[in-house]
Design brief:
single chain; about 140 residues; alpha/beta; Nucleotidyltransferase, domain 5; 5 strands; about 25% strand; elongated; rRNA binding; Small ribosomal subunit protein uS11c; rRNA-binding
Length: about 140
């Protein structure tokens, strides 16, 4: 059986839902939130619009393994892969939290080939914040 020859002026041979031209992002911001239970990596452009994100949980790690440095490394690789596909070459890094994945995430970002402009620690620190609970009486 031979294939039917499409008409030249037919609308059916036009590609439906043609892809939009994806914006090239030469510079971005990589946010790493490292808690003791998980590591979340978000890649944004300069204005703060999310380009891609990943976490240790979405990479398939469950339970206490989500807080490990290896899980953080894998989540960084997943998040940065799409950002590099969009043309990201330079990035600022904001690291938040006390988790084990902080150093591993930063090492994975350096190995990815993205030029780092600066690395900033944005962990929230209380300036003698909330009032502590009252003394326990036994």
């Amino acid at each position: 059986m031979t294939k039917a020859i499409p008409k030249v002026d037919s609308h059916r041979n036009v590609r439906i839902g043609a892809r939009k031209n994806t914006c090239r992002i030469p510079k971005g911001v990589i946010h790493v939130q490292a808690s003791f239970n998980n590591t979340i990596v978000t890649v944004t452009d300069i204005r703060g619009q999310v380009v891609s994100w990943s976490s240790a949980g979405t990479c398939g790690f469950k339970g206490t393994r989500r807080g490990t440095p290896f899980a953080a490394q894998r989540s960084v690789v997943n998040a940065i892969r799409t950002a590099i596909g969009r043309g990201m070459q330079r990035a600022e890094v904001m690291i938040k939290g006390p988790g084990l994945g902080r150093d591993a995430a930063l090492r994975a970002i350096r190995r990815s080939g993205i030029l780092l402009i600066f690395v900033r620690d944005v962990t929230p620190m209380p300036h003698n914040g909330c009032r502590p609970p009252k003394k326990r009486r036994v």
